[in-house]
Amino acid sequence: MNRVTQANLLKLAAVFLFLQALIITLAPAVRARAWDVDYRWSHWIAYFVWGLFVLRTHQSIIRQLPDSDPYLFPMTALLSGWGLLTVWRLDPAFGTRQAIWLIISMLMLLFGMGLPSTLDFLRKYKYVLLSGGLLLTGLTLIFGTNPIGYGPRLWLGCCGLYFQPSEPLKLLLVAYLAAYLSDRLPIRLNAFPLIYPTVLLSGIAILLLLFQRDLGTASIFVGLYTVIIYLATGRRRTILISALLLVFMGVAGYYLVDIIRARIDSWANPWIDPEGGSYQVIQSILAIANGGLDGRGPGLGSPALVPVAISDFIFAAIAEETGLIGTIALMTVFGVLLIRGLRVAICASDGFRRLLAAGVTAYLGIQALLIISGNLRLLPLTGVTLPFISYGGSSLLTSFIALLILLHISNHLDEEPAPIPKPQPYYVLGAFLCGGLFIAALSNGWWAVVRGPDLLTRPDNPRRIIEDRYVPRGELLDRSNGIINGTQGTTGSYARVYEYPDLASVAGYNHPIYGQGGLEASLDEYLRGLRGNPATSIWWNHLLYGMSPDGLDVRLSLDLPLQRRADALMAGHRGAVVLLNAESGEIFVMASHPTFNPTDLNELGAQLNKDPNKPLINRAAQGLYPLGTLIQPFARAISGGEEQTIPQ
User: Which pTM value belongs to this model?
Assistant: First the structure.
């Protein structure tokens, strides 16, 4: 039965990833809306590498660990394949490295299946293993480096290969605590002499991480220590103590470490400095908002606009291209993995493996919640990776070691489970992890569906500029369909042109740097095709192309021949002229002088930066002419030969 279940789940994972790879290949044609494009093919290497090693690992599990939980490997295989394709799609060079690390991790998994399933060597050599991990982590204080050349030096590296010791140290801490506490069960919380070695060694690990300014990993250590002590003792007091410790670490870090202060400030109020310290958080939220309910489609979003999208913000990248539906599916996979991990713990045949399985599951769950919550602005950014998904060899290898431990422990589920004096802590842990994922899903829906439409109109959203290059913007026309502002170019290179620039003070501009002004701003939703088009058309274009439909032309009541005459008469004078039909209220002429040419906005902006005391240029560049708002009630949106009155 296990064999069939695992095989069927792996087939579903393979089909899902195949469809994702196929869509990524076709994405350039979809975006350009033409077949004659350069297609993406290199990521298929990642898919076939993943498939080959997943098949080989599946066969080994069936042969060597036949009674292991059939859900564990398929869930992690899906997550690792999803992450590999996402990283490769964002950066093929890093995708190649991730594929190599995936091969190494799979080979380690294959080799580890031959180890004794009792895992007694972890119990026997607990002090040696943890001390070795602490030593390697301590060496980063002296010999540490950073692969990108700046930032915290958390890696040991040589010859282009880098390893982060703090990643496996998490599992070594779990193994040590499980081994030490299982030998002393039952434990009373007030029996401090029994657990002081755990406090000492765990404290050393946390201090090392604090010296490294790695608050995210230090928080995970505190969380893991809390979980295992709570599971072993059943006393809720440990949770309160650890919560106070985390608060203390956060407060101390805020005042002592610049990077921690910056992250907390950007989390507390990111809108104050969207282009500076909060840029990552804002762009992450914009990516999630841009994904909406069903996403832009694999290969069709712009997740690379989020800094470090392959690692710290890979959840935001997935959210933009698969939407709320995709991220809920992702969190559901994590939820199944965590539930099955806790089931393995509860059914374990001895106390050591029970605590070990629960600790490993907590490690995967806590780390996933920290990074997902950071992307969603539920918590400050911590810089940790999303298990099995984010780019990072050390993290991927450690995640597969965690999987190996769970597979070994679950291979004895047919044995009689050891008695659980206090099962409630395990249920509390499960409720906490699954509840955290549920809250994250609600937050994801808030940004993607509720706040998304407003967020996407922000002037600092670069995705609007990208869309302007691929979707023709509607034209501003006079009463006789003469073009005032139009669009020229082909898909991928559309640009705004101003056929009658003297009307810039009214018609406004749509500029990739200076934003919008005048009617280009007030009628933006029509010109962009988000209003006036049938809802089915908007939905279909979003689903198929990941973009809005073609913009609608807007016919104004202005009369270009009369406008030209008025501008000619106003030449050399300062002032404004408005000519209207007193009976109908239609405005025929709106002339304001001096004016500006939107084509010269770059030059005008440079002048403004040099001399901010030029009020005319300042007002023109910002589109602050009030006359432009008078004409909107008399504009008409044109779609397919039909006209629609634009409400005031």
Answer: 0.86
